[in-house]
Amino acid sequence: MDRQSPLDSMEAWFEQMSKQFETAADRWGTGLEPWSEGMSQPRIDMAEDDEQYTVVADMPGFGKDDIEVYVTDNTLAIEAEQRDETVAEEANYIQQERTHQSLSRRITLPSDADTETISASMDDGVLTITVSRVEPLDSGHQIDIE
Q1: Taking Cα atoms as reference points, which of 96, 52, 59, 97 lies closest to residue 81?
Q2: What's the pLDDT at 27?
């Protein structure tokens, strides 16, 4: 009679998990893919220093008039919509894909973000949003136990 090692079944289990993770990664992507026209969320970078937070979002093909930036309940929202209204009536399209494009992204801001002083600028399809930092209203305090 041949005894099976408990490690043999663990190895098979790890191989099965590895295959499942690979399948999931193929379905979901890595999250590092470049922005493409079919995406519904712009890719962002968010950085901080002692004075402010900076959010940089790639918005290719959008002009500043196509984009809305606002804050609600400590959440920064970026929304963009673009319609191609130019249609040549005599054109015989084989394929027409550039008719409507919209993006939306919500970012929860840290508790020390000053939502009253936010600025935004647009340069060559890159949206930069700057949010000042403030001292937290309540830094916490000790509670005595009775």
Answers
A1: 59
A2: 57
With a cut of 60, say whether residue 28 has pLDDT above it: no
Token pair recorded at residue 36: 């493409």
Nearest-CA neighbor of 39 among 127, 123, 104, 125?
Answer: 104
Token duo for residue 119: 């600025």
**Does the global pTM surpass 0.70?**
no
Rounded distance between C-alpha atoms, residue 127 and residue 36, angstroms: 16
Which domains does the chain show, CATH number per domain?
A: 33-86+93-133 (2.60.40.790)
